[in-house]
Amino acid sequence: MSKEIERKFLVSSLPDLSEAKKAVVRQGYLTAPDDSTELRLRQKNDTYFLTLKGVGGLVRVEREAEITADQFETFWPETEGRRVEKERYTGHLPDGLLFELDVFSGDLAPLRLVEVEFTSEEQAKGYVPPDWFGADVTADTRYKNKTMAIYGVPD
Amino acid sequence: MSKEIERKFLVSSLPDLSEAKKAVVRQGYLTAPDDSTELRLRQKNDTYFLTLKGVGGLVRVEREAEITADQFETFWPETEGRRVEKERYTGHLPDGLLFELDVFSGDLAPLRLVEVEFTSEEQAKGYVPPDWFGADVTADTRYKNKTMAIYGVPD
């Protein structure tokens, strides 16, 4: 299992994104948070997935199948109120670090979040973010995609 | 909406099924009975479906998509303990009436049920079943497929 070392920030102002790669991402839950199973629809550009996750227990089952756009659209209406819709821009910062910038639409607009990926914890701790970054929300679980799908943007 | 007039019986002994049409049917639930949504996988011979049903409320949403065998098999293991597996034989009785005979396998074996379809309530009420039929369980909701998927064969 690979370990990701990331920090997550709000975004004060959008940077120049002309060199960034853009993807349309939609994900939504067919099940409610208290249900015994989690079923998630996810679109990334022209690929679509249905993912089942077992809830609770030590070992959490995960099963995923690629689905067609038609299959996705058949069930998507039932995710209403439990969605994350965003454009994801992936690129490199001037110092070479990889960033993923999410510009949310739908119920979560106008929220924007940016994540930076590091190669070591030392690098992550010593990191000085660029001017366009806002508050560090790395430890704030309210900004998790799944949490926002249900509870919306934190106050 | 068409109205079905049917009676359901246990089966004392199997009749000659050489003229009947046989179908392999598997259905199973990805969700538990108390969940806010019902997701059902269903196979009939070489066709496979995923069906979502809203739970409760006056209007119950239903959305269904045909899926591939691979997609079916990806999620099927998660229906364990909530399955109906059977061979369905469809044919005509000597008096011309249509019957559907279900021979259950898996957890519900060796249960067998037969349903007869009528064109009027009078015909249904006056019906004298053939010798190979057992007890009439038309009104016994424990013999519904969905109920048996969860609770098993009635004692």
From TrEMBL, chains A, B:
Q: Name one Pfam family in it.
A: CYTH
Q: Which CDD domains match?
A: CYTH-like_CthTTM-like (cd07761)
Identify the PROSITE patterns for this entry: CYTH (PS51707)
Q: Which InterPro entries match?
A: CYTH-like_dom_sf (IPR033469), CYTH_domain (IPR023577), NeuTTM/CthTTM-like (IPR012042)
Q: Which residues form a coiled coil?
A: none
Q: Where is the CYTH domain?
A: 2-155
PANTHER family per UniProt:
SLR0698 PROTEIN (PTHR40114:SF1)
Protein name per its UniProtKB record: CYTH domain-containing protein
Species of the source: Ruegeria atlantica
